[in-house]
Design brief:
This protein is mainly α. Among the domains are: 47-128, no CATH class; 143-246, Receptor-associated Protein, CATH 1.20.81. It is 84% helix and 0% strand. It contains 13 helices and no strands. It has helices at 2-25, 30-36, 47-57, 60-81, 90-113, 117-128, 130-162, 167-176, 181-194, 199-210, 213-228, 232-285, 287-293. The protein is flat and about 95 Å long.
Length: 294
């Protein structure tokens, strides 16, 4: 009992000492200053993404050196073509890629200790290839979105040019009322022109970022209209018509490729269930005969 009282008194004295040190080193204005402190410009992601960032933080330097300057430049181009999804930069991408690599090594070692290395290998492969697959899928989705928005965008742009505005003013006007990947790329080209980049260089940069055949045709038509004096409205209408024709042909091709896939799904799902029902009904109907045989 005496020992318990001594322990409680010691704990109380420790708390009093900690509080006294805090009062001696504090100004009493910390909570007031916290209200006026500027918010951080960037915050760490939370959840699983935050865990991946934390795992890759220590290995990001090694990963950058392993990539090399040339691969980093190609990676930056790929990220810009994908529209910088979720604000991802080259550093963030490399850090998360390193985090997935570290996590795959940890899981591979864990499954090896559990005596199941064959289970850890495919998981490690999926984790290490996740970021490249995600970036490729995001860039492909963005390119499809640009191709889908381009005909309507060109129609509105052609009407605006017909109304008497110049190309740059018409493009700015149309971008004000459009959202999406195409309008974002057009606004980026306009920003480059605003800081002194020539129209040709801005349009060529737009073509390189998008990697879309429709955008390439648009850029070629715009450059020819500027150099040769071709009427811009007719060029925009012709490009919109060609893009719609290509989209219709692509839709027909996709529909033709879908038929074998549907047949495969039906064969692998509905047919086994139907056979199971038939066999079960036959066995139930002939239960007495089969019981006599076996």
């Amino acid at each position: 009992m005496i020992a318990l009282g001594v322990a409680a008194a010691a704990a109380l004295l420790l708390l009093v000492a900690v509080q006294g040190v805090r009062l001696m080193t504090s100004t009493g204005l910390e909570t007031v200053e916290e209200q006026y402190r500027p918010a951080p410009t960037s915050r760490r992601a939370k959840g699983f993404v935050g865990l991946i960032d934390a795992l890759g933080e220590r290995a990001v330097g090694t990963a950058v050196r392993a990539y090399g300057a040339q691969r980093l430049r190609r990676l930056d181009v790929a990220i810009r073509r994908a529209g910088r999804p979720d604000g991802v930069t080259v550093t963030v991408y490399v850090r998360r890629q390193a985090g997935f690599a570290v996590l795959s090594v940890i899981l591979l070692a864990l499954f090896a200790l559990l005596g199941q290395p064959l289970v850890g290998v495919p998981i490690a492969v999926v984790l290490t290839s996740w970021m490249p697959l995600w970036l490729h899928a995001t860039g492909r989705t963005r390119q499809q979105e640009i191709d889908r928005e381009l005909p309507d965008f060109l129609d509105v742009l052609g009407v605006t040019v017909t109304a008497g505005l110049g190309f740059r003013q018409a493009l700015e006007r149309v971008c004000e009322f459009h959202d999406g990947a195409l309008a974002e790329e057009m606004r980026r080209a306009l920003q480059e022109m605003a800081v002194g980049v020539s129209r040709r260089e801005a349009l060529v940069g737009l073509r390189e970022r998008s990697r879309s055949e429709a955008i390439a045709s648009l850029v070629t038509a715009l450059l020819q209209a500027e150099e040769l004096g071709v009427p811009l409205v007719e060029a925009l209408a012709a490009i919109a018509k060609d893009v719609r024709r290509e989209r219709a042909a692509a839709a027909r091709q996709a529909a033709a490729r879908a038929a074998p896939k549907v047949s495969l799904v039906v064969t692998l799902t509905i047919l086994p269930g139907a056979l199971l029902l038939i066999v079960a009904s036959v066995l139930i109907a002939n239960a007495e005969v089969l019981g006599g045989i076996f």
